[in-house]
Each structure stands twice: as C-alpha cells, then as structure tokens.
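Before relying on records like the one below, remember that each one covers exactly one chain. Contacts with other chains, cofactors or solvent are not represented anywhere in the record.
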Amino acid sequence: MEVIEKSAEGLDRRFLVKVPANELDQKLVAKLQEVKGRVHLKGFRKGKAPVSFLKKMYGKGMMSEIIQEIVTETSQKAFTDRDLQPATSPHPHFHSDMEDVIAGKADLEYDVHAEILPSFDPMDVAGLKLTRPVADIPDSDIDEALSNIAEQQTSYAARGKTAKAKDKDQLVIDFVGKVDGEEFEGGKGEGFELTLGSNQFIEGFEDQLVGAKTGDDVEVKVTFPEEYHSKDLAGKEAVFDVHVVEVRAPEKVEIDEELAKKVGLDSLDDLKKRITERIEEDYKRLSRGHVKRALLDKLDEAHDFELPKGMVDAEFEQIWRQVENSERDEEDKDKTEDELKDEYRKIAERRVRLGLVLAEIGKRADVQVPSSELQQAIQQQAMREAQMLQMQGQEVSPQEVLKFYQQNPGAIQQIRAPLFEEKVVDYIIERAEVKDKTVSKEKLLEEPEGEDAFA
C-alpha cells in the first residue's frame, strides 16, 4: 500500500492511495482462512472446503468489504500519520474500475480529500482582563417572588349564581370542541378547572368566558395556531360548546408563616432565604453571561487564522435556515439578501473561529466533561425529544431516543460539544483577571453587548 500527498494548498489536502491487486488478494485469502472453519458447504466436510473454492463462492462480496475497510482505514491514516486532523470527514474519489478491482484484475487507486484543522497557538488566557457586572438584589424582587408564590397557593370559593366571571376567577366547565361540525380527539372535557387569564387554552378562548355566570352555555369560537402540535388542527377554526358549572372567586392568600408551611418550609424567614438564594443564582448566571460575551469578543479579536471553508459553509447554512424560517428584525428589513448573507457569513466565521480556539485551549489544558454530566445531558435531551415527537403524534419513548444516542457517537458529540465549551469558558474565567463592577438590575438584565457567538 502506498499513500502519496498530491496537493497541499492552504487547509486543503489531497492524497493518492495505491493498493496493489496482490495485496488485496492476500487480505482476501487471510479473511477466507478466518471463516473457513465456520463454513459448511454441500459436498465438503465442515471447514474442509478449499480456499480457492471459497474465493469463487464468496470472493466478490468479501472483496467489497475489504475495500471498504481499507478506504475507511487509509482515509484517516493518511492524515494521522502526518499529524493532521481533518476538519470534515475525508471522502474518497476512485480512479480504478471497481468491477475489475473486485474481480482481482486491477490495482485499487483512489484520492482522499479533506480540509484540515488549522494549526495555531492560542493566546495566554492568564493575562486576560475582564469586567464582571454584578447587582444587588432589590427588596422588590423578593416581594414579587413572594406574591407569585402566594398566587400559586390561591384557593377559590363559589360566587353567587348571578355573579359574572372576572379575570383571575376560576371556572368549572364542561366543553366539547368541534371542527367543521365534527368533534375532534382531545377536544372534550368535564369538570375542568380553568382560571381566566392563565392562558391554559388557545388564545381567545378564556376572553370569551369573561362575564359568564353559573349555569350559562357559551359558544366559544377560536382558531388553532398554524404551528399547533396537531397537524390535523393547525390553522383550523373551531367551535367549543362550553357549559359553566360554577364560577369561583380567588381568596386572598396572606404572605405569612402559614404560606411558608404550605410550600413545605418551616418559616417565612426560611422562605425568603430560599427565594434570595434562587435570585442570587439567577444574577450569577446573568453576570456570567456578560463575562462570557466579553471573553468571546477578546478571543475573537486575538486570533486570526485560516478557517476550514467546509466548516464555515455548514455553520452558515444552519444560520441561514433559521433566518429564512423567522421574521426579519426591524434593522434587517431594508437590507438585501446579499447584504444579510454577508453579515451572517461573518457570524458563521466567528462561531467557527471561537469553536476552534476554545477547543485548542481545552485540549492543551486537558479540560474534561465528567461522564456523569454527559449522561445527565443525554437523558435530558432524550426526554425533550421524546416529548416533542409525542406532541407531533408519534409514539416514541425516552428510552428509544436514549438508545439512538447510545448507538450514535456523532449524536453524543453534539451534546458534549456545548458542555465542553462551557467547561473551557469556566477554565479561562478562573485564570483571567476578573474585576467586579456593581451595576443596576436593569443593566444586568440587558442583553450582553457584542456579536452573537453560539446562540
């Protein structure tokens, strides 16, 4: 076997691989010898059929397998032997007549082509200076959280039979939904407790029940959204015959010790402490978001190297599909498609560049994603995907999705990649010079400044 480098332009590499016919034949004979003892052919005792006869019987099929194995092996080996890492999967281009090769009449010759990852030295992150915005928790945040908890613990008492339903009231209803005069699956319920203003039902449904009284029959007309999970109902107009069994008014819940006990805590002080800790975690997450954006901007500015075109193209196509499937922002409405494509290609280049920089920093620092964290992320993703598929009417369990991931290393890598990047970001922040700067809550809540990186 011979591997010759044909071209090396920028990040593009092309190799010529030659495998003589006699070497292929040797591999075929060795493979036949391996299986000889397990083959039982009519007219021969088990394991006694001559290799020459097995070659006639199974040679072509086995030779196809051997060629595939050689191509897979050499496609990677051509790069690894030269300490090169392909940016994308190497793909072969055959020069030989494959029928003649399989028949043992010709040598195997083919090109292997791929772009390689660029070689570069990342910046010294120990000297990086970053500012981290932090904010004090206003008392109003804690008060608002307490009010929300109290609202969640709201109980309801029946209004008088002549009382009209108001926003925030709870209605006990029986209902039957119809599309084109026909009942549809999932459109029927009895004794359902619906709080007006909760947006539990389709937009416009609850509004039409404001003013209803106990015992009323109300015809509610709505239109299912175009993106509704059931394709049979998406975009369709529906009529619901609703019978109001009872109208209930919310009873005020006091923010006191009793409320704390209702949510399983010992005291109101304990409840306030838990709320404060949760808000602190939210604020830390927001602060980190600002630091991360500033970090990515600095990493982007500090590195300039050639990018694999295939990686940039793939990233751009993914971004552009999202752009085409969403409404344009106000600032983009007056731009031509070419102008927009130019902007989004720059974002794609930034994403690829930052991905390579973070990967190299992580590699040199031996940053790892703990197996437990990866498995947890895979299970969570399997749950989300299964729920999504179930909403689309497919009967798929989380275990089936999980099995798919377990059998597909590429799919697992897609989950591992963002976890790894976050670990590298943490690694850099720990070694950088980070200075805290107190800002207002409003400033902390603002979107981090700078170009989109990985969102």
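Residues 2-115 form a domain with the Alpha-Beta Plaits fold (CATH 3.30.70.1050).
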